[in-house]
Specification:
With about 375 residues, this protein is α+β, with helices and mostly antiparallel strands. Helices cover about 45% and strands about 20% of the residues. It is built from 11 helices and 14 strands. The strands form 2 sheets. Strands 1, 2, 3, 4, 7, 8, 9, 10, 11, 12, 13 and 14 form a 12-stranded mixed beta sheet that branches. The chain starts with a helix and ends in an 11-residue tail after the last helix.
Length: about 375
């Protein structure tokens, strides 16, 4: 019976080639557009999810208001990480990053400008999921003048990925020993560095200055730990440390500083909010915007709705011309349910054909869509 339904449906669709083509192409165009937008939204919402401890990682941000000017920054003082680890047993680990601009890395007789360079603590491998391809993650960045690079950089400078023990010269004067090679960082990461220099190399990281904020600081909380408890304690940490140094350096107490309409606050931001809900000064990468996700999602639903309404209108308009066929089938004894099955079979065939064409169109247009959206999306099973 099903075989007969499919055969009859094919005959009816081929009999009305013009109508069938318009119906399939109209629905396929709507589905392809919707599919591309779904790719974009899925990619945006998936940032940093590759980290195993994704839900337990937080960044410490600062809000500083002085003389009426409010600055929201993604950096904190150097000693903050150690202070939080010492005072809160809920903190399992911390890691700091310090960006210092562009470096020149020597390759043979030429110097190559590298922008994606950062200083960081060795604990980065315990906080973020950055698998080692070569080297020991437990001590790769524990010594001064050591560096960890990505597999892409290892191939770029040494034509191989097992580069541990090699030396890179930065800015013509500073040799760094490669102590680890990590797998390339996923595109869906809010930071994408190629070179990680050990934090002990940087003297600034050892200073006890609470009035200078240059370090992106991340916390990994223990399972079940409450971030709100740490957030509630941050004002006291600021008062005890920033306030003390402020009074010594500026000769003004922290309470007088606040009474003048100024403020110095620290807040916690979940890792999952950084890409779409953070646009602070000193971000480690170009972030997205949750508003764009909402807007594009609404557009996708609207386009899909229009495509479905158009499909139903065309099918309804054609049904009037098939009244004679329905009458003949009833006279010959065809049950009502078989008539329903026949029309459903035709609709399913049109929909499946449109879906197949939509996938092909979306795949063909993906490179152009990447250029327009500034993405590097590729078709993988999780996208489909």
């Amino acid at each position: 019976m099903i075989r007969n339904f499919i055969k009859t449906a094919f005959r009816n669709l081929l009999k009305n080639k013009g109508f069938t083509a318009i119906n399939i192409l109209g629905l396929a165009l709507g589905l392809a557009t919707c599919l591309l937008i779904v790719f974009y939204v899925t990619d945006e919402l998936g940032f940093d999810h590759f980290n195993k401890n994704y839900s337990r990682i937080y960044r410490v941000d600062e809000e500083v208001k002085y003389n009426g000017d409010l600055s929201e920054v993604a950096v904190c003082p150097a000693p903050l990480a150690a202070t939080l680890s010492a005072q809160f047993p809920e903190v399992e680990n911390t890691v700091r990053f310090r960006q210092s601009g562009t470096f020149q890395v020597r390759k043979g007789n030429q110097n190559i400008h590298e922008d994606h360079v950062t200083y960081c603590d060795n604990s980065i491998f315990k906080v973020f999921t950055l698998p080692m391809a070569d080297g020991d993650a437990n001590k790769a960045l524990s010594e001064p003048n050591s560096v960890v690079i990505t597999e892409d950089m290892a191939r770029k400078y040494f034509n191989r990925t097992n580069a541990v023990g090699e030396t890179l010269v930065f800015n013509d004067t500073h040799p760094f020993k490669i102590t680890g090679v990590i797998k390339d960082i996923p595109m869906q990461s809010h930071f994408r560095f190629d070179f990680f220099i050990s934090m002990p190399t940087l003297d600034e990281s050892k200073e006890n200055s609470w009035l200078s904020s240059n370090f992106q600081t991340y916390l990994l909380l223990k399972p079940g730990a409450s971030a709100s408890k740490i957030s509630a304690a941050l004002p006291k940490i600021v008062h005890d440390n920033v306030g003390t140094q402020m009074e010594a350096a500026l000769h003004v107490s922290f309470s007088d500083f606040q009474k003048g309409g100024n403020k110095f606050n620290m807040t916690l931001m979940p890792l999952g909010d950084i890409h779409l809900r953070s646009s602070k000064i000193a971000e480690m990468g170009v972030n997205g915007n949750i508003q764009y996700v909402y807007i594009f999602s609404a557009i996708a639903m609207f386009i899909l709705l229009i495509a479905c309404v158009n499909f139903m209108n065309l099918s309804t308009a054609r049904s009037a011309g098939r009244a004679r066929e329905v009458g003949v089938r009833k006279v010959l004894g065809s049950p009502r349910k078989y008539l329903v099955y026949q029309f459903l079979t035709e609709s399913i065939l049109v929909t499946l054909s449109a879906a197949l064409i939509a996938v092909c169109v979306a795949y063909a247009l993906l490179p152009l869509f990447n250029q327009l959206a500034g993405k590097e999306l590729v078709v993988t099973p999780h996208l489909l």
